[in-house]
TrEMBL record:
Molecular functions (GO terms): catalytic activity
Tree of life domain: Bacteria
Domain Amidase, chain residue ranges per copy: 3-196
Name this protein carries in UniProt: Amidase
Pfam families: Amidase
UniProt family annotation: Belongs to the amidase family.
Species this protein is from: Amycolatopsis methanolica 239
C-alpha cells in the first residue's frame, strides 16, 4: 500500500501524557518520517480516556483468573507473587462489575469507530518508557504521580486491546542507553492491511 494520502491521526491527549521525553522525541520523529512519506497528519482527540484503565483491568484480570484457575490450583508456586495477587483479585470480582466493564467497552468501541472515520491510522508511542532495570517496581513522573511498571507498560496498548482494532508496532530508534523505542500504528476494524502496508513503507 502506498502511504501517500493516508490520514494519520496524532493524539492531542492520552498517548503523550506521562511519557518519557526520549520516547516522545523518538515517536514524534517517526511521525515526521511518516509525513515525509506523503501521509497527511491530523490532530485527534482520543475519546473516553478516563475509562480506559478501569475497563482494561476490569476485563483482563477476571478473564486471566478464569483462564489460569486450574494451573493456580495445581501449581501456584510457578506464579510470581504479584501475578498471584492479580489472579486472586480477579476471582473476587463480581459478575456485575465484569458486565459493567463490558458495557463500557462497547461505548469505547463505538466512540473509537467514530474517531476512525476521520483518519486511516493513529500513530502513537507503544509504551511510555523503555525497559526498566530488573527489580524496579514503579515509574515516577515529573508531576509527582507514580504508577507500577506493569501498569505503565500496558497503558498505551489498552485502547487497541479494548477495541480490538489492529495495531502494529514499528521501531523508531533507541534511547541514550541503547534501549529500543516503538511507535504503534492503529487502524480501523478490518484495517490490518493498512497498518501492515504503512509499517512496511516506514521500515523500508
Amino acid at each position: 500500500m502506498e502511504p501517500s494520502g493516508l490520514r494519520v491521526g496524532v493524539p492531542r491527549n492520552y498517548y503523550f501524557d506521562h511519557v518519557d521525553p526520549e520516547v516522545e522525541s523518538a515517536v514524534r520523529s517517526g511521525i515526521g518520517r511518516l509525513e515525509a512519506l506523503g501521509v497527511r497528519l491530523v490532530d485527534v482527540e482520543i475519546p473516553m480516556t478516563r475509562f480506559v484503565q478501569g475497563v482494561q483491568w476490569g476485563l483482563t484480570v477476571p478473564e486471566a483468573s478464569a483462564y489460569h484457575e486450574p494451573t493456580v490450583q495445581a501449581v501456584s508456586e510457578i506464579y510470581a507473587a504479584d501475578v498471584r495477587v492479580l489472579l486472586e483479585a480477579g476471582r473476587r470480582m463480581s459478575a456485575v462489575d465484569y458486565l459493567r466493564a463490558q458495557r463500557a467497552r462497547t461505548l469505547i468501541r463505538r466512540e473509537w469507530s467514530r474517531l476512525m472515520e476521520t483518519v486511516d491510522v493513529i500513530a502513537a508511542p507503544a509504551v511510555p518508557v523503555t525497559a526498566v532495570p530488573v527489580g524496579q517496581e514503579g515509574v515516577t513522573w515529573p508531576d509527582g504521580t507514580t504508577e507500577s511498571v506493569g501498569g505503565a507498560y500496558v497503558r498505551l496498548s489498552a485502547p487497541a486491546n479494548i477495541t480490538g482494532l489492529p495495531s502494529l508496532i514499528v521501531p523508531v530508534g533507541e534511547d541514550r542507553a541503547g534501549l529500543p523505542t516503538g511507535m504503534q500504528l492503529i487502524s480501523r476494524a478490518g484495517g490490518d492491511g493498512v497498518v501492515l502496508g504503512l509499517g512496511g513503507a516506514f521500515e523500508s
